[in-house]
């Protein structure tokens, strides 16, 4: 900041606290001066009176009537004593001519020079009379202060301190700026803070976080202080720094301070130059001086093989760190081979590090590290503290790149580390994506290494850059800007740029990245388990797999391009870290070349005299001695070049002898081999099969292949399904898609691809425009891969039986055990001889790498399957048929999982055996567990099934019903359209066939229901009316048919429900009456038919709902009671009938609501609510996957909560209302397309607001009402022609407007009421006959009038009441009602 020149003092403001307005103006001036780059202090008069002013101090004296009055007083007893003493001190300065220039008189806007105290009467300096308090208005004063000051620190700096504590659901805070109090607050905890991190994955997450940030700002700052802080940020000169330091107790750190929003809605923590630091209340400052460079980072990446946690993109994280270290010269890194507590302690004892980087799955209380066997090790905070203490050296910065390390500030990992001596901890407050964490840490480390800034600066710059990048890109990615946080007890640069460097004793040597064997860290995806086995075997750390025989090395086997060479390269890289007992390493690639091996070993210095022998046999003897006594590693790469095709024997028997001798001699030294085939002779080497990449590893590799990364998801699926987890083939596809003549990421891949393309006569595209599409690039890559793995030559080596076993296995997508494969080949139960022969066939196929071991069976990998397609020939269909029989056998033996069921479907479909597929599905469907399984199974059956097949209609209808039952409404509607089209085709073929017409009517009815749930009301109405037309036609043809009449009654009922949903009361009443008349007539004709009585009950409840919507509660109750009188005896007679139970539940719930809303007979309402709860629990338990019953359970929660509120039992009420919100959110998430789910969620928030009112939680009330309003707005935007949604939105706006009005926010209330008024107008435009909406309009005008009256604007209030009266007068003239009459009298009275 700019201060006085050398030897100068302070810049102080002296003022009198005339009134609140004047004090606010003084603070505004102070903020503007600081924003201008001046380190201006704002002491209170009492603080200023206690200062000893001298010449170097510069005082900005602000005149005011009180200041003039106090300064003129002869005695402090006659005035404010502190202000009087301050004025006297300034007067003493003015009496000295040399000091007079250090007082600058200022008059604020609205004041006059007469407000300046008399002590300035002899002052001849400039008097600054400010016209406005703005940057321009104070520019001359700022310039004058700059002229009088010299520069000590060219970077303007401000420190905003927040001291925060939380207790009893209230947050207490004190905010100071540069030591001056801004505000003190004691507010309810902001709404939504408990679920803040769950918002990150919801739609409109940015808007939701913005609202939470606003609520947090309102809790911590008053409006004036937040405005002043915003001005400071907005008006600050370039390069200004604002250090925000939050000192809080444990519970207070649960608040997301990094989400604080300024008045202009900017995120404070993301503003350039703002640096956020948290610290724990009560902890002393701990400053660790910088230590010699370069920046030294210890990396521990916890990625155990045996864990239930999902895979981390550990390669990307290591690549991020390496990208910082590589080439800078100012950073070094040690990446621990095993990320365990003891290994961390050992590393810290060896070297002094600046950073410990922990990357692992984690929780608020610990991280998941690993032991040397790859097992997960749960390391709690205390365990990590002990490990760091054993290390014996302080670590200035700990980076927890794990999820939730900062989530619990009482007992969490970050807090515990800080309390036990850690100086700085960067941690995450919740789960974080690999992408965000990696990008953030890359930026932080680069800044620390290149610029040697403080940690707060590095984190602030990274956060700000990533936030701005997301804003510029208008990214819809997860908004994670507030997730990282810095806990610190002190800060500053980590390393000393002046001191003599002290490099690490053994930094991780980074691979060059120029070839497959030198893949850069982060480029070798996966393979940690295999690498662990290789290294432990080579180091003689354990006897592998408990074997007793000697193991002198490892042979890595697997199909070409699977990653064997890259794995060897990484093993070599790790072995070079063994500096205490170093290795001599020689790589011998390809065919046996004795002179080259001898020369290479001699060059390492291993084996005395190896290079001195003219006789190669003597040299080889020296090599065997070296292997026996020295740490010599000989790597034989591409060993299959020394074997016959298929690997049955050595090409050179002499080399077989030599190789065996080398392997047996390698006691202290070791042998490491990569080969497509197993070694054909016994050698003491451990065979390690290198498998294809797992799905998680495959996903991570795709992110590193630029052309594949840019593909559409559909095209990427095409590639993945064909190629699977084969790294080289994926590299081939990526290179082919680029269209640069086969140029790949790595030179070796490019060379191989071009050589294979020449052999296969594949023309490589030389430009992106001519590059093949995904499907063609995949086909080309598989063809080249088949050539690469010598597929043709290997197949020539197979016997006919082995070839048939391979081709039969190749039609299956799942692993097969030998017994099942033998059955499929022979199409009968295999004999013992069949099983033995198949075991031999599989062994040979495994040796040729044509099949791979997987789980308990073997699998032909997808790229091999694709390459074998042309060889299947005419027998392909028959092999699929036999594979389907094999699956049937597995099912019959009760060995089938869901994968086996879908595999059977796949084979039957591939064999074009759709009759068998239909019978299989029909037989299987009743035994499947739950509708979700049914939907998934039929999702495999119906695609590709002939639509003209007799079974297809029933299959797709069943799939539609299963999708609807599991909440996939949009998908169900898509299937429903198929059903409608198919049944319409039946009618087209047989226009007069009653059964076909009934089928079509049913399909239209079901589709109407689905469209209604999706909010597509016009389409739903069209379907319902078509169904009604069919049913009416059938009744005309045969008016005596009771079933036709039932269907007609149902159609009228559905139309009534739809009209009710659209708030069309008249049409709803007409249709409901029609339905009820038909059903009553049917009951009268057949009084003993329970089905008809059930229909009648449904008609009564439907009409009751219409009556209630039309404000006729009395008739509604009467109708519901009639329905109950029907259903109670029916349920008693048929207690297991779920449909009757569900209908009884509807009636019981409806009657409970009617009685409860009437405010009387509370005991009866209570009994009904308890009865409904009992029924709904019974239904939900019997059908846990039913969305309909879950919705009924939701209604039960609300009713029970209302009952608890009425009884004053707030604890139970909270349990029910919170349960309702949780359930409603789950249902809405399960079926985001369903409008019922969204409306239920809005209702849940509204009911939660009712509870919060009763419990005295104003912030919770507002937050829940805001959420309810948000949902209503979303529905109106999606369905602008739906009158019911407009009604919901208007009511939600009114409710929130009323609340904020009562809370003292008239401006916001007026805005909400205006919006509600506009919504009611749109509702009336959609349905002019909605009398309730017109009355509601008048009601909103009344609320606006009351606001205007309270604001002292009677003219505006009168205009609003006149508008309300005009609406009601017109309505009363058209349709006089008691309500309109009462409103007339009310508004006339208000108008006088």
TrEMBL record:
| Pfam families (UniProt xref) | CHAT (PF12770)
InterPro entries the UniProt entry points to: CHAT_dom, P-loop_NTPase, TPR-like_helical_dom_sf, TPR_rpt
Q: Where is each CHAT domain found?
A: 213-479
Q: Which residues form a coiled coil?
A: none
Against PANTHER family, the record matches this protein to: HTH-TYPE TRANSCRIPTIONAL REGULATOR RV0890C-RELATED, REGULATOR-RELATED
- The molecule here is called CHAT domain-containing protein
């Amino acid at each position: 900041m700019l201060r006085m020149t050398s030897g100068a003092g302070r810049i102080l403001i002296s003022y009198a606290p005339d009134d609140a307005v004047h004090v606010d103006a003084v603070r505004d001036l102070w903020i503007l001066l600081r924003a201008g780059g001046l380190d201006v202090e704002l002491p209170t008069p009492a603080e200023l009176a206690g200062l000893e002013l001298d010449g170097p101090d510069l005082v900005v004296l602000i005149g005011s009537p009180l200041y003039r009055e106090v300064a003129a007083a002869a005695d402090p007893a006659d005035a404010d004593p502190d202000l009087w003493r301050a004025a006297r001190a300034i007067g003493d300065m003015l009496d000295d001519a040399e000091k007079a220039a250090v007082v600058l008189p200022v008059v604020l806007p609205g004041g006059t020079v007469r407000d300046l105290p008399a002590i300035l009467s002899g002052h001849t300096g400039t008097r600054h009379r400010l016209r406005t308090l703005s940057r321009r208005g104070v520019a001359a004063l700022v310039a004058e202060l700059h002229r009088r000051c010299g520069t000590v620190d060219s970077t303007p700096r401000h420190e905003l301190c927040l001291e925060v504590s939380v207790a009893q659901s209230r947050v207490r805070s004190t905010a100071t700026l540069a030591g001056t109090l801004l505000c003190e607050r004691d507010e309810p905890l902001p709404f939504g803070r408990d679920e803040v991190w769950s918002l990150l994955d919801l739609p409109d997450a940015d808007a939701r976080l913005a609202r939470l940030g606003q609520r947090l700002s309102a809790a911590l700052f008053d409006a004036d202080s937040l405005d002043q802080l915003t001005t400071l940020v907005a008006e600050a000169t370039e390069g200004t720094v604002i250090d925000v330091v939050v000192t809080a107790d444990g519970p207070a750190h649960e608040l997301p301070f990094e989400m604080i929003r300024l008045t202009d809605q900017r995120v404070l923590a993301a503003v350039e130059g703002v640096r956020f630091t948290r610290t724990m209340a009560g902890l002393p400052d701990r400053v660790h001086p910088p230590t010699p460079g370069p920046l030294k980072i210890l990396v521990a990446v916890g990625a155990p093989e045996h864990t239930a946690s999902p895979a981390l993109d550990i390669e990307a994280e290591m690549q991020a760190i390496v990208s910082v270290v590589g080439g800078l010269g100012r950073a070094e890194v040690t990446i621990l081979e095993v990320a365990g507590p003891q290994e961390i302690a050992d590393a810290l004892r060896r070297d002094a590090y600046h950073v410990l980087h922990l990357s692992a799955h984690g929780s608020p209380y610990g991280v998941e590290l690993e032991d040397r066997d790859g097992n997960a090790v749960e390391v709690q905070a205390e365990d990590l503290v002990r490990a760091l203490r054993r290390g014996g050296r302080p670590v200035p910065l700990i980076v927890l790149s794990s999820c939730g390390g900062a989530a619990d500030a009482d007992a969490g990992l970050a807090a515990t580390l800080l309390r036990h001596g850690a100086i700085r901890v960067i941690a995450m407050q919740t789960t974080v994506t690999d992408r965000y964490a990696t990008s953030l840490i890359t930026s932080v480390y680069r800044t620390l290494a290149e610029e040697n800034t403080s940690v707060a600066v590095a984190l602030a710059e990274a956060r700000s850059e990533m936030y701005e990048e997301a804003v510029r890109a208008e990214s819809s990615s997860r908004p994670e800007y507030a997730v990282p946080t810095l806990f610190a007890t002190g800060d500053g640069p980590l390393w000393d740029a002046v001191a003599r460097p002290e490099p690490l004793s053994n930094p991780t040597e980074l691979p060059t990245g120029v070839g497959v064997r030198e893949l850069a860290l982060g480029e070798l995806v996966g393979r940690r388990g295999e690498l662990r086995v290789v290294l432990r075997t080579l180091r003689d750390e354990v006897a592998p797999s408990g074997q007793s025989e000697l193991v002198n090395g490892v042979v890595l086997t697997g199909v070409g391009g699977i990653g064997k060479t890259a794995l060897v390269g990484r093993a070599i890289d790790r072995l070079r870290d063994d500096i205490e007992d170093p290795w001599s390493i020689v790589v011998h690639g390809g065919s046996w070349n004795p002179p080259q091996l001898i020369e290479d070993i001699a060059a390492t210095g291993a084996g005395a005299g190896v290079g001195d022998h003219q006789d190669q046999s003597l040299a080889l003897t020296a090599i065997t001695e070296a292997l026996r006594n020295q740490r010599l590693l000989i790597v034989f790469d591409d060993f299959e070049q020394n074997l016959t095709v298929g690997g049955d024997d050595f090409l050179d028997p002499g080399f077989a002898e030599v190789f065996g001798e080398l392997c047996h001699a390698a006691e202290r030294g070791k042998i490491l081999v990569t080969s497509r085939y197993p070694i054909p002779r016994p050698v003491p080497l451990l065979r390690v099969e290198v498998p294809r990449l797992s799905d998680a590893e495959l996903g991570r590799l795709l992110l590193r292949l630029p052309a594949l990364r840019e593909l559409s998801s559909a095209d990427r699926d095409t590639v993945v399904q064909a190629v699977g987890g084969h790294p080289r083939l994926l590299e081939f596809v990526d290179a082919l898609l680029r269209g640069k003549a086969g140029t790949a990421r790595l030179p070796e891949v490019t060379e191989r691809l071009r050589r294979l393309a020449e052999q296969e006569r594949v023309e490589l595209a030389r430009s992106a425009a001519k590059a093949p599409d995904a499907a063609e690039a995949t086909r080309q890559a598989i063809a080249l891969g088949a050539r690469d793995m010598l597929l043709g030559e290997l197949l020539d080596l197979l016997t006919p039986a082995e070839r048939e076993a391979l081709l039969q296995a190749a039609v299956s997508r799942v692993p097969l055990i030998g017994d099942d494969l033998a059955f499929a080949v022979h199409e009968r139960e295999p004999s013992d001889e069949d099983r033995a022969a198949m075991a031999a066939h599989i062994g040979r196929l495994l040796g040729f790498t044509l099949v791979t071991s997987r789980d308990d069976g073997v699998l032909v990998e997808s790229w091999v399957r694709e390459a074998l397609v042309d060889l299947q020939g005419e027998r392909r269909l028959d092999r699929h048929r036999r594979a389907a029989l094999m699956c049937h056998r597995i099912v019959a033996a009760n060995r089938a999982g869901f994968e086996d069921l879908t595999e059977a479907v796949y084979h039957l479909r591939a064999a074009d055996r759709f009759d068998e597929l239909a019978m299989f599905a029909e037989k299987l469907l009743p035994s499947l567990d739950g509708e979700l399984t049914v939907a998934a199974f039929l999702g495999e059956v119906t695609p590709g099934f002939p639509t003209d097949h007799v079974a297809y209609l029933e299959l797709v209808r069943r799939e539609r019903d299963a999708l609807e039952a599991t909440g996939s409404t949009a998908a169900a509607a898509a299937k429903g359209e198929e059903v409608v089209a198919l049944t319409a085709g039946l009618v087209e073929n047989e226009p007069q066939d009653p059964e076909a017409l009934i089928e079509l009517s049913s399909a239209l009815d079901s589709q109407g229901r689905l469209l209604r749930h999706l909010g597509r009301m016009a389409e739903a109405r069209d379907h319902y009316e078509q169904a009604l037309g069919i049913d009416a036609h059938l009744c005309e043809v045969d008016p005596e048919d009771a079933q036709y009449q039932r269907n007609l009654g149902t159609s009228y009922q559905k139309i009534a429900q739809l009209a009710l949903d659209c708030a069309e009361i008249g049409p709803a009443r007409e249709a409901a009456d029609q339905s009820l008349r038909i059903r009553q007539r049917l009951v009268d004709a057949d009084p003993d038919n329970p089905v008809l009585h059930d229909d009648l009950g449904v008609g009564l409840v439907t009409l009751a709902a219409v009556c209630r919507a039309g404000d006729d509660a009395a008739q509604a109750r009467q109708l519901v009671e009639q329905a109950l009188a029907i259903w109670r005896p029916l349920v008693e007679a048929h207690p297991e009938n779920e449909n009757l139970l569900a209908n009884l539940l509807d009636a019981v719930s409806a009657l409970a609501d009617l009685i409860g809303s009437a405010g009387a007979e509370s005991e009866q309402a209570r009994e009904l609510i308890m009865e409904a709860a009992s029924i709904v629990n019974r239904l939900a338990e019997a059908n846990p996957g039913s969305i309909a019953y879950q919705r009924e359970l939701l209604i039960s929660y609300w009713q029970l909560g209302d009952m608890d509120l009425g009884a004053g039992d707030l604890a139970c009420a909270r349990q029910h209302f919170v349960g309702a919100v949780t359930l409603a959110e789950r249902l809405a998430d399960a079926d985001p397309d369903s409008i019922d789910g969204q409306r239920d969620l809005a209702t849940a928030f509204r009911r939660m607001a009712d509870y919060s009112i009763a419990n005295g939680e104003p912030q919770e009330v507002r937050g829940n009402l805001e959420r309810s309003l948000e949902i209503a707005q979303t529905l109106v935007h999606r369905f602008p022609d739906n009158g019911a949604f407009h009604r919901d939105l208007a009511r939600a706006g009114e409710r929130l407007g009323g609340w904020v009005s009562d809370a003292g926010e008239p401006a916001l209330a007026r805005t909400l009421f205006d919006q509600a008024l506009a919504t009611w107008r749109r509702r009336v435009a959609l349905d002019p006959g909605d009398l309730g909406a017109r009355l509601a309009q008048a009601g909103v005008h009344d609320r606006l009038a009351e606001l205007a009256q309270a604001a002292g604007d009677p003219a505006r209030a009168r205009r609003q009441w006149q508008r309300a009266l005009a609406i009601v007068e017109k309505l009363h003239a058209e349709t006089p009602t008691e309500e309109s009459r009462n409103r007339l009298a009310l508004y006339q009275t208000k108008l006088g």
